[in-house]
């Protein structure tokens, strides 16, 4: 190794100013410059040089000196330098360097462009600056798309995206499509779907073609509070040009989910409009909706399950997460308290407690009402059911379960509640039942293939999945799904790990299960089920193990709440980011709880 005292040492130089035999020697310390500093210095030099060159060429153009080409647009002429235009625009580069007629011409005529837009683009070529406004954005975007100036095109697209409004989003979407601006087209399309109800009140909506209307309303991602909004928008569109558009109604109705409107709306508003009921072809959709809605009142009637009877994504979008009941320390105390989490502000707030203390309670929302089903009061398995209306801030009792069920798995599907398995005070059971709020009545369903308590449950697509749990002797790895139309059970691929007291939720059309326990081991692991391939895979584990955990999805995030980590009851909450495959903590619940009801 070099002697450190020598590093950066100096050289000795004779002083030319010395006299006689005297020699003056000076030690000069080398300046050590890192390669990074040199690179930055070089970049700065290049930037200054480029700015100076462009500024000089811009001055030449303004004085019309050394210009070798003129762009002519609608009679207006703009002198410029070929080399500058070619360096900035692939369009001009190809024109001036290929064997085309324009290569040797001194005047280039540009068709179908606006003079002010071309002038702005020429200025950009010399100055790297462009001003985008409402007055010039469309002409500028058209010109920059043709002349292939990506930077100007991006600036125009960003400006238009910032101007999106229910009155113009359809026009911007069409304009973006015509000019190949796919990011802007996607942004305008997403905005249209998110604000559909307001968009439908504007003139642009009424001017849509039939194909464009269908392309909009057929989507699961259309953001509406109810299907009544879609039907009403279609009626407005038809009536705008009644005679010519009425013949399109049967084609459009194929994509309106009439089975999801209310019975009152169907039999009054839809019937009174006479648009649907006045057409023999359209009547099949009306009758289909009547049969489907009637099956809610008369379970022996089977409504057809197809794309028109499947809720749109927005019908299932949750704003809050509820945590109800459970057990807490000290002494595994059973509680009745309820709290609600708002992800937008990352805050938990208490709401009115349940009438009964409950642990192992099933919790689900149906038609904006929260239902607490079964559970245990610490001594006995319960069959009582109560529901909470956030509008009145009150709990009320509804029809009890047909069987006592603690540690029951409860989920919503269509307009019914479903309760699977549980512990009846003696053993884990395999019975199941469903609740119809229209008639306040529970009905027995076919038994599951396996007795299960402390299981997870979700609805996805046309099926309900019951996952893991405890059969009275062992924690389970098996999963089975129920078809509410055929009333049949079938098995799917088992999980990778046996688990009971787990949490489960659906996110991005996949099933996530988190935590739980395998015998005495508390689990932090997370598994993901893909129904298209019938396979399970591992996701990033939670930051800590949690059995008796609550899991819920809101937006594009998965939340894991509370539970027991093997030593302590938890009130902490962590959220899973699918893109990053990462869990991070958010605001904690007010109460440490385990084996509680949880839903979004």
UniProtKB/TrEMBL annotation:
Claim: Chaperone is one of the keywords in the record: no
Positions of the UniProt region annotated as Disordered: 1-32
Keywords: Kelch repeat, Repeat, Ubl conjugation pathway
Pathway entry: Protein modification; protein ubiquitination
SUPFAM superfamilies, alphabetized: Galactose oxidase, central domain, POZ domain
The keyword Kinase is assigned to this record: no
Domain (BTB) ranges: 67-134
Protein name (record): Kelch-like protein diablo-like
Record lineage: Eukaryota, Metazoa, Hemichordata, Enteropneusta, Harrimaniidae
């Amino acid at each position: 190794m070099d002697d450190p005292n020598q590093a950066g040492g100096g050289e000795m130089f004779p002083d030319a100013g010395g006299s006689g035999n005297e020699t003056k020697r000076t030690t000069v310390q080398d300046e050590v410059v890192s390669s990074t500093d040199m690179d930055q210095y070089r970049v700065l030099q290049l930037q200054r040089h480029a700015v100076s060159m462009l500024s000089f060429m811009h001055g030449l153009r303004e004085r019309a000196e050394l210009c070798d080409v003129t762009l002519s647009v609608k009679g207006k002429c703009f002198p410029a330098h070929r080399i500058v235009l070619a360096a900035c625009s692939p369009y001009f580069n190809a024109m001036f360097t290929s064997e085309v007629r324009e290569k040797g011409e001194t005047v280039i005529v540009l068709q179908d462009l606006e003079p002010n837009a071309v002038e702005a683009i020429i200025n950009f070529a010399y100055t790297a600056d462009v001003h985008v406004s409402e007055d010039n954005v469309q002409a500028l975007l058209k010109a920059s798309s043709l002349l292939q100036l990506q930077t100007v095109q991006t600036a125009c697209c960003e400006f238009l995206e910032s101007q999106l409004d229910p009155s113009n989003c359809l026009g911007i979407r069409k304009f973006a499509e015509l000019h190949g601006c796919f990011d802007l087209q996607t942004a305008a399309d997403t905005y249209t779907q998110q604000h559909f109800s307001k968009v439908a009140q504007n003139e642009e909506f009424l001017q849509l073609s039939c194909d464009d209307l269908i392309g909009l309303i057929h989507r699961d991602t259309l953001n509406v509070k109810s299907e009544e909004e879609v039907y009403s928008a279609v009626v407005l569109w038809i009536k705008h040009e009644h005679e010519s558009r009425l013949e399109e109604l049967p084609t459009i109705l194929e994509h309106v989910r009439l089975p999801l409107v209310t019975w009152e709306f169907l039999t009054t508003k839809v019937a009174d409009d006479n648009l649907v009921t006045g057409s023999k072809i359209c009547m099949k959709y009306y009758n289909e909706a009547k049969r489907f809605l009637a099956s809610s009142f008369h379970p022996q009637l089977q409504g057809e399950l197809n794309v028109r009877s499947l809720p749109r994504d927005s019908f299932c979008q949750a704003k809050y997460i509820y945590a109800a009941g459970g057990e807490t320390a000290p002494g595994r105390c059973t509680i009745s308290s309820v709290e609600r989490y708002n992800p937008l502000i990352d805050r938990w707030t208490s709401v009115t407690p349940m009438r009964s203390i409950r642990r192992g309670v099933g919790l689900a929302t149906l038609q904006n009402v929260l239902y607490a089903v079964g559970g245990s009061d610490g001594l006995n398995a319960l069959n009582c059911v109560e529901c909470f209306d956030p509008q009145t801030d009150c709990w009320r009792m509804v029809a009890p379960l047909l069987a006592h069920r603690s540690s029951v798995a409860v989920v919503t599907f269509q307009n019914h509640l479903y309760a699977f398995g549980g512990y009846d005070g003696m053993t884990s059971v395999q019975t199941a039942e469903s609740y119809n709020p229209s008639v306040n009545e529970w009905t027995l369903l076919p038994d599951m293939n396996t007795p299960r308590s402390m299981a997870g449950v979700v609805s996805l697509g046309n099926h309900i999945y019951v996952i893991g749990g405890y059969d009275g002797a062992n924690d389970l790895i098996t999963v089975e799904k129920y078809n509410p139309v055929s009333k049949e059970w079938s098995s799917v691929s088992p999980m990778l790990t046996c688990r009971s007291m787990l949490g489960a939720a659906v996110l991005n059309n996949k099933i996530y299960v988190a935590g739980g326990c395998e015998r005495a081991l508390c689990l932090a692991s997370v598994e993901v089920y893909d129904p298209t391939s019938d396979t399970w895979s591992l996701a990033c584990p939670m930051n800590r193990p949690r059995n008796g955990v609550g899991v819920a999805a809101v937006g594009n995030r998965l939340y894991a709440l509370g539970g027991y980590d093997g030593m302590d009851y938890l009130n902490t909450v962590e959220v899973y980011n699918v893109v990053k495959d990462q869990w991070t903590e958010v605001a904690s619940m007010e109460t440490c709880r385990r084996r509680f009801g949880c839903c979004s």
